[in-house]
Amino acid sequence: MTALDGLFEELDRRIPRELSEIVDAVSPAVNALGYDKWGFSTAAAKRTLYVAAWFYRHYFRVEVHGIDHVPEGRGLLIGNHSSQLAYDGMMVATAMMLDARPPRAVKAMIEKVFQRLPLVNVWLTRAGQVTGLPENCERLLEDDELIMVFPEGVRGSGKLWKDRYKLVDFGTGFVRLAMKTRSPITPFAFVGGEEACPAFFDIKPLARALNIPYFPITPTVLPLPLPARCSIWFGEPMWFEGTGNEEDAEVIPKVEAVKARIAELLDEGRAARTSLYL
């Protein structure tokens, strides 16, 4: 038995029944080897939730508002991006598992850069995340899955401290997919990610040399974030009619409407904070 096998066995022994039952309840059908058609593994998802739940409950002490706004069935969760290493996405997915009633599994559309990182790429796939290609998202929505998308992409997750909570341009793809698949968009704001992983500089030459989107200089040693208090604010679902093949001039106002709602939720969440870390 390898050291990694031993670590997995120890994790499996520590997983509370509560978390194990949640994953069992939301897991898709798997084959004889324990994987679904996207590479998801129930065992890996349980280990991931065990670790994520600790960060959610004890480290970031996440508070959730409006989670009942997320409708049943297929849908898109669309929010602001931050925190350098996608802690925001992990915490939103964990919220849907721990605080939604009934629990919901979320498949996040992850940046292609993560698929180039050894071990990380396998872990993300086994935990149920999918490379952020339009065709993948469309197939998942047609299967009535709940999908999480950050339209800012790496430009959002790699923001510097001076640009915290400033939304950068959104792509139009998520609105086109929502219209094409008749899926609701639930906007959300993640507050606290900028304080958890503040980045003061981006060493671009080093990032290019390593073939990664950014190389941030932070007050912590990544990937360990600061214990910032985080909150998630869900808005009411938004529906858009159309085929998804409309001209940009017709789609962009819909994109801007979603972006504006997320900005409002960010303002609401930041105004409600009483402490950043304590």
UniProtKB/TrEMBL annotation:
Looking up SMART domains in the UniProt record yields:
PlsC
Keywords assigned: Acyltransferase, Transferase
Report any Pfam family annotated for this entry: Acyltransferase
Q: Where is the Phospholipid/glycerol acyltransferase domain?
A: 75-193
Which GO molecular-function terms appear in the entry? acyltransferase activity
Recorded GO cellular component terms are: membrane
Name of the protein this chain belongs to: Acyltransferase family protein
Give the organism, scientific name.
Polyangium jinanense
